[in-house]
Amino acid sequence: MTELDLGLKVASRRLLWRMGYTTRLDVQLRGVGVTSGDAPAKGQRGRRSSAPEAYTDLDVLGYSISGGFRVQSAIVDCKTSSRGSTNRMFWVRGVADFFAADAAYMVREKDLSTAARQLTSRLRISALNSSEIGSLEQLHPSDLDFEAEPLAWLFQEEKAVQVLRAFGGLDKRLKPLLEYREFTYWINERYRNPLQMVDELTAAAQHLDPRNPAHLALVLDCSWLYLVSLSHTVESMRATHVANHDLGLQEYLFGGPAGLREKQGLAHLLETIKKGGALPEQVHVGLLPDYYPRLRELAVRVLARPDAVMPALRMLELATSVTALGQRIEKAEDMGGLYDEVAAKRAADVVGFLVGSANLSPGFRARARSLLLGEPVAEGA
Q1: What confidence score (pLDDT) does residue 255 get?
Q2: Looking at residue 25, which CATH number applies to its domain?
Q3: What are the pLDDT digits (tens) for 331-341?
Q4: One domain for residues 301 and 208
Q5: Which domain holds residue 64?
Q6: How many CA atoms lie within 13 A of 147 on its CB side?
């Protein structure tokens, strides 16, 4: 996050909150490192690996849940200078298409060129300058108190920088989880994330300490990401198998009916090989992970109360920032009108699911419930 456009980013975040979104700043898009099939050069071992290639970055990303449990998204591109805005319009359109965004905004400190303004309707991009952000905010009144701390911290420049930097100096052993959270999650096929998030947290479990505020903030942030993934999951379940939750969830997790049949066939083959003694008894060859029943239960809970998803996402977003700043939420009244009991329980359910499924320390669950529900933390947790 650069200092020059920081003010525009937090102002855009505030606008999206007024419009009913939950948000994320500075989403990085990059490819994955690949291993070349070419023979290694003389004196080198193994195959050559290339470093991940950076694609681009997104300044502000917002998600909302509309009627019918449709997940909608918005992207915002923020720059202080208006130079190159015409060309940038096409870049914004491309990123919006990548995210399948329903709304796209280009925000500049001063007015855009006439040519750029002429492209807005054709490219379906809303162009705003800094003063127009304030005018648009007035069209979206909210019951939330955006001036009340700690909610106000989401929209303060110095606090936003501190939160982003909180994840920069963590243990190198957490690098795979951090890279998944920051990069891989966004370029994955969406259906992969509900299982991969658990795998990534499981691999990092022994290096995560709930007494470390940055580690707790990291788990809360992963819970926000996971609830976004669950929202996409439930959207698919509702559209395809609303009366058969089990089938709808399995089809989504494996990329559709064809993918599910393929995985079922592979699982059956491996089970046959295992029964023949060619695989050790402890090798898991089942189609679904051991935690699948808990995942199904959580998905059904989310499906049953779509009205609780948005406030739950927002509470997790706020709890992540507050924790990353080394602070805590003392009581529900501190959330500026954001607190909702059902949503708080749903957010806590997501954290609890990840803690149990990824074998994280129970202290993460206890501290999350303290932040979200006001429960006391047992000594030593």
Answers
A1: 94
A2: 3.40.1350.10
A3: 877 888 899 99
A4: yes
A5: 3-32+53-142
A6: 0
